[in-house]
Design a protein that fits this description.
Chain lengths: 168, 361
């Protein structure tokens, strides 16, 4: 009882444990799992990051069917910052996919912009559009995959037919 | 004899930050019957796990079953999948896993004890407990990179290695925590008024705990020596100084004290682990698809957590079944209420440390 009283008195004069966030900054601790940054030049488009991402915050969209060129799209507002994509990326050591130690700024009046965040978020201006556009992208990305598969299949069939013709 | 009055407790209640509803039928302030509804936060995680997600994504999904023991869920799942895939982990991985599991136990127990202090009227003791708890949160944040969702245990290892700086940081914090916890134990153990509100309240006898199959600290506070860490071989706890803690009183106070005993034991274990982390890789290679079925029992902070997994050689599992400790403790809780005063109900509920988001999943 007495000890508790002493402890209470000590607490009256000691420094508070809390910080005055948002009026004072609350810095990220060392080793914090923050935003996922991407470097297109190093990417081999193996899709491993897309396949492991639990909420589906990384989507590759095929933009050119003929060459099979893909674009990396990342939604930092859907990401749960688990770091699974970085773990899965075979090129992570070279810096293709890295996890920064700072958090993504919250979505307020504006959408975060950074060339390392991929194509999607840099193409959206209004925060209210993020969700809608992401849903559109998901559908588009899935469709582009199907188109690519169909294109490849048709090409293979054509090649086979040509081969059969030639051997005749 | 007075009239029968039904008093609702929850689904939103000031004393309990969890959505659970109790309908107490009371007569002259004494509880005569109780109806429990636990399904308020059902999110369909078990179903999602076998339809929407591949087995590699599941550690991150099951970790989100609960905010407090996310490490336990991810750990149980990864252990099960590793059994199915036949992956052998090395000693370093085991030690790092044990470290986070025990740190998780410390912070969960401190939260539970703090809440009990709050509902019996010790607001400042609650704040003090939570202030001390920050130390262990800091350690976890430093080791895993996040404060609540650790995502540390992955299939085939842990997400990141620990460096010497972090080890030093963790050791220092743990020593402060140890000194602070000793202070707290002193308050909880010797304070007269706190004792009045908790000693002899909501007593579970050993027979009752056995009969209703109580789990975790609730069973151990009644003298029932049950602990999945000792009974099921999943991590080498004995090597780092694990000791089973029991008390015999079985009341609210004993449940608090057993948690404090476990905190002290866990701090000891963590210090031992940090003292000698084995050399090695923090990840091993993962190959193959899960096939066959398996079960896992692990000791979550609240008691035994059970996982059943069934694979079919594809990327999506056939069945993921989770049974959590709070669910196992509801029958004894229900039985316990009958005959107690309504004014003690809050302390009893919170001394069980119920986790509804685990229970409803
Ligand atoms: S950190 Fe996790 S959620 Fe975010 S993009 Fe990577 S895998 Fe997806
Ligand atoms: S895992 Fe890495 S290399 Fe593969 S597609 Fe993703 S970013 Fe590119």
């Amino acid at each position: 009882m007495i000890q508790m009283f002493i402890e209470s008195l000590k607490n009256l004069v000691s420094k508070p444990e809390t910080v005055k966030y948002p009026f004072a900054p609350s810095p990220e601790p060392k080793g914090y799992r923050g935003t996922i940054l991407y470097n297109e030049e190093l990417c081999i488009f193996c899709d491993k990051c897309e396949n492991i991402c639990p909420p589906g915050a990384i989507k590759f969209e095929v933009v050119d069917i003929e060459s099979g060129k893909k674009q990396y799209n990342y939604n930092p507002y859907l990401c749960i910052y688990c770091g699974a994509c970085v773990d899965a990326c075979p090129k992570a050591d070279e810096g293709c996919l890295t996890q920064a130690e700072v958090r993504t700024p919250v979505m307020g009046e504006s959408v975060v912009k950074n060339p390392k965040l991929g194509y999607f978020i840099n193409g959206v201006e209004n925060p209210k559009d993020v969700e809608k556009k992401w849903r559109e992208l998901e559908i588009r990305a899935a469709k582009s995959r199907e188109d690519l598969a169909a294109y490849k299949k048709a090409k293979r069939a054509a090649a086979k037919a040509a081969k059969a013709k030639a051997s005749k | 004899m007075g009239n029968k009055i039904i008093v609702p407790f929850g689904s939103q209640h000031v004393a309990l930050p969890e959505p659970v509803s109790f309908l107490f039928e009371t007569q002259n302030e004494v509880i005569t019957d109780v109806t429990v509804n636990i399904g308020y936060v059902h999110r369909g995680i078990e179903k999602a796990a076998i339809t929407k997600f591949e087995y590699t994504q599941l550690p991150y999904l099951v970790a989100r079953v609960c905010g407090l023991c996310s490490i336990t869920h991810a750990g149980a799942y990864t252990h099960g999948i590793e059994k199915l895939l036949g992956i052998e982990t090395n000693k370093k991985i085991d030690y790092l896993r044990m470290l986070v599991v025990e740190l998780d136990r410390i912070h969960s127990h401190m939260l539970a004890n703090g809440h009990v202090a709050e509902v019996v009227g010790y607001e400042n003791l609650f704040m003090q407990t939570f202030r001390y708890r920050e130390d262990v949160m800091d350690i976890l944040e430093r080791i895993t990179g996040n404060r609540v969702q650790y995502d540390y245990q992955i299939i085939g290892g842990v997400a990141r290695d620990i460096d010497s700086e972090t080890v030093k940081f963790a050791k220092e914090k743990l020593l402060t925590l140890k000194a602070n916890t000793e202070k707290l134990i002193e308050f909880f153990e010797n304070d007269y008024t706190f004792g009045l509100k908790t000693k002899g309240v909501g007593t579970i006898s050993k027979e009752m705990a056995e009969k209703f199959n109580a789990a975790g600290p609730i069973a151990r506070a009644s003298g029932l020596a049950t602990d999945a860490r000792a009974e099921y071989d999943y991590l080498p706890f004995e090597e780092v100084g694990y000791k089973l803690q029991t008390r015999s009183e079985g009341d609210v106070w004993a449940r608090n004290m057993v948690r404090f005993d476990e905190i002290m034991n866990s701090i000891e274990m963590c210090l031992n682990i940090l003292e000698g982390i084995p050399e090695g890789e923090h990840k091993v290679k993962v190959k193959g698809r899960p096939d066959g079925e398996t079960f896992v029992r692990v000791e979550a902070p609240r008691g035994e957590c059970f996982y059943y997994l069934k694979g079919n050689k594809t990327k999506v599992l056939d069945r993921v079944r989770i049974r959590v400790p709070t669910y196992a403790n509801i029958p004894v809780l229900k039985e316990l209420f009958v005959g107690e005063k309504y004014s003690d109900a809050q302390a009893i509920v919170l001394s069980f440390d119920p986790c509804m988001s685990c229970t409803a999943r």
